[in-house]
Amino acid sequence: MSSSLSPRRDAKRNHERLLVEAKQLFAERGIDAPLDELALRAGVGAGTVYRHFPNRDALVRELYDAAVADLQDFAPQIMGAETGWRAIEIWLELLGGWIAASPHLPAVMIRVAELDPGHRPAAQFAPMMDSVVARAHAEGSLRPDVTAVDLSVIVDMLGSIGQYGVAYVPYWRRQLVVVLDGLRARPGLTPLPGQGQSFDEFHDMSHAKGPKPASR
Question: If one looks up domain 1-54 in CATH, what number appears?
Answer without folding.
Answer: 1.10.10.60
